[in-house]
Amino acid sequence: MLNKEISFTAMEVITSVYNYLKPRIFGMIIALLFLSVMVVAIAFTSWPSLDQLPQNLEDQSNIEGIGLLIFTDFVVPFEILSIVLLSALMGAIYMAKGDDTQ
Question: What b/e readout covers 37-56, taking b as 16+ CB neighbours within 10 angstroms?
Fold first, then answer.
C-alpha cells in the first residue's frame, strides 16, 4: 500500500486547475483591473510639494487651495481612494454582521 505509484495525466492536471480557478476568475479579473488602475494612477500622478500649493494669505488653512488641487489635478486618485474606502466600509459591515446561524 505504501509503494502504490501515483500517476497524473496532463489532462487531469489541467482539468483540476480549471475547476479550481473557474469560480474565482471574475474576482481575479476585477482585482487585476483594480491593480492596473492603481499602478497607472500612481505612475502618472504629479506629486506637488507644499510650496506648489496656491497660497491664500487670508485663509492660513489653505482649504481652498487643497480643494482646487483635489478637483483639478488629483481627480483620479481621489475617486480611487473613495472606491477603496467604500469597499473597506462594506467589508467591515459584512464582517461585523456575523453569521445568523445561532
Answer: eeeebeeeeeeeeeeeeeee
